[in-house]
Amino acid sequence: MIDLEPQARHVRALLDGVSDGQLGLPTPCESYTVADLLAHMVGLTAAFRDAARKETGPATGTPPHEGTPRLPADWRNRLARQLDELAAAWRSEDAWEGETQAGGVTLPGAVAGTVALNELVLHGWDLARATGQPYSGDPGSLRVSVEMLSDPAALEQRDAIFGPVVEVPPDAPLLDRAVGLGGRRPDWAPA
Questions:
Q1: C-alpha dihedral over 54, 65, 81, 101, to 10 degrees?
Q2: Cα(13)–Cα(25) distance, rounded to whole angstroms?
Q3: Which H, E and C letters describe 101-167, residue by residue?
Q4: What is the rounded CA–CA span in Å between residue 39 and residue 29?
Q5: Which residues contact 104 (CB under 8 A, 6 or more apart)?
Q6: Distances (CA, A) of 120 to 46, 98, 110, 169, 171
Q7: CA-to-CA distance for 127 and 34, rounded, in angstroms?
Q8: Would you call 67 exposed, middle or buried from its count of C-beta atoms within 10 A (0-12, 13-18, 19+)?
Q9: In angstroms, what CA-CA distances link 96 with 51, 112, 113, 116, 143?
Q10: Which residues are within 8 A (CB) of 57 and not within 5 positions of it... i.e. 6 or more apart?
Q11: What is the DSSP track for 51-64?
Q12: Could you tell me the pTM of the whole model?
């Protein structure tokens, strides 16, 4: 089992640093504004929370590429609460066993938990970069993310999910390696 709480805490710490005036800013996710990214994060935290609980339904059955949801007015409180619920749900051994569903895909619980953690790592970095906030990520979570994204099976599917790998030096910090493996340039900055 992997503890998602340390990384969820890093992401939660960013929320108060996002102003309403930043919601229209671009992010490292080319088709997302900050508002789009936050809406995606609201959706993914609910989906992966429900996946951990084995509660399949609209949250777990909708593919992420089926349109960007609208950012709810209470996004800051909702996302903070759902980050806590996500971390708590993945503390259960049952979450990591058997199969579950996320993004409309049936997959092993252990894979879903790792993917959820990776989503927090990458989208936390995206949000921090887009809004000019410092971000280091949880070191243990970064190691899991790099390991997952370096897996040959993940590399085969990466272009459809993350985009091509951005090469970084082998001795680059773990965060830069995770970001590069996630198809992002570690030196990305808003124009």
A1: 10
A2: 19
A3: EECCEEEEHHHHHHHHHHHHHHHHHHHHHHHCCCCCCCHHHHHHHHHHHHCHHHHHHHHHHCCCCCC
A4: 13
A5: 60, 61, 62, 63
A6: 13, 22, 16, 23, 23
A7: 7
A8: exposed
A9: 10, 8, 7, 12, 19
A10: 50
A11: HHHT--SHHHHS-T
A12: 0.94
| Cα 24 to Cα 182: distance, rounded to the nearest angstrom | 23
Q: What's residue 158's pLDDT?
A: 57
Half-sphere exposure of 121 (CA within 13 A, CB side): 31
Find the length of the chain: 191
Residue numbers in the chain where pLDDT is lower than 70: 67, 154-161
Phi, psi of 171 (to 5 degrees): -95, 15
CA distance 185 to 125: 11
